Amino acid sequence: MTLDEVTWFNSYCFTLTLGFLASGILGQNIGSRRTMLIAAITYITCCFTFYLSTSVTIILIVQAFVGLNIPMSMSPSYAYIVEIAEPQLRSILLAIGNLAIIAGSCFAVMMAKYIHLKTIILINTIFPVIGLLTVYLLPESPHWLASKGKLREAENALLWLRGWTEPIKIESELKSLNDSYHDNESSHKTVNSLKNTFSPYLTRPFCLPLVSIIYMFFAHSSAGSFTLHAYCIVIFKKMDPTFDRYVAVALFDTIRGIGAFVYIFVVPYAGKKKLQFFSFITAGFSYSIIAIILLLKEKELVNYHVYSFVPVVMFFMSTFLTSMGSFCSIVNYFQQDFAMLALE
Fold first, then answer.
1. End-to-end Cα, the chain, rounded Å
2. Which of 56, 190, 213, 230 has the fewest beta carbons closer than 10 A?
3. Full DSSP string of 261-299
4. pTM exceeds cut of 0.70
5. Where is the Major facilitator superfamily (MFS) profile domain (predicted)?
6. Which residue intervals of the chain are DSSP H helices?
């Protein structure tokens, strides 16, 4: 593929918005579990289409569907974790999901050095198949079942998720779940205006976390989070031409994985907010150092051979820091009533 074709291949992020909208609609109507099943089937179909493709055009079209399908799998899976997990486990489970994504990317890059691309695609098809079978065996979210008035099924699902414990041990949790959706249902019957309908989403507990999320994702994306991986080889060649391209991308993914792994153990002690803002600020500082050094190199104001290690070190540091400050955990800034909307 040419550089222009690689650019189009990496532009799947434009279809992410439609995917998020679709995942929100499907998640509310058919539940997170069924949405994940649809996403897994779509991934399997895309993998086989990639394998059978004979032109760049087909690859680009399928990649657009992959971009559409990414939110279809991520949003309901994160929502499912938030709904079924106990509060003290949510951040860790969300971080493990992020770690799994990074590990899969690193695994594919490492295989690319020794195995043909189409063989890698067939190997990668195994994982959505395993995901499809695993999700099929899971119960539906108790929150979604309760919201649809299926309280008996919600109780059975909650018992399964808590390790087939005795009903008396989940009685308070089930009652809280039932009361929450019963109150919401009663309040919806008395709402007659759009102002009252949207008033909960204009309150301070919702707006402040929402503004923080929008700003952080905007800054994170502006720094090149979507394109950094695609142009990792080009970036390394500019910073240090001696780097092997496969080693460079493998190191990039490995450091991302280490950052996500460290996050799992650090977050119980440092806290989500402090860790989030620390990684955000220090990663921005690292990007600034890289930009300054490369600018001075282009202006021939410094001897780049002396400082060539600085951009490489800062690049790896920023990668580690952005991975350690998992954006998934920011959903915990919201109150429980707003968590699902935040994920969508």
1. 34
2. 190
3. HHHHHHHHHH-HHHHHHHHHHHHHHHHHHHHHHHHHHHT
4. no
5. 1-344
6. 3-9, 16-30, 32-52, 56-84, 87-112, 117-137, 142-147, 151-161, 171-190, 194-198, 204-222, 232-239, 245-270, 272-298, 304-307, 309-324, 336-343
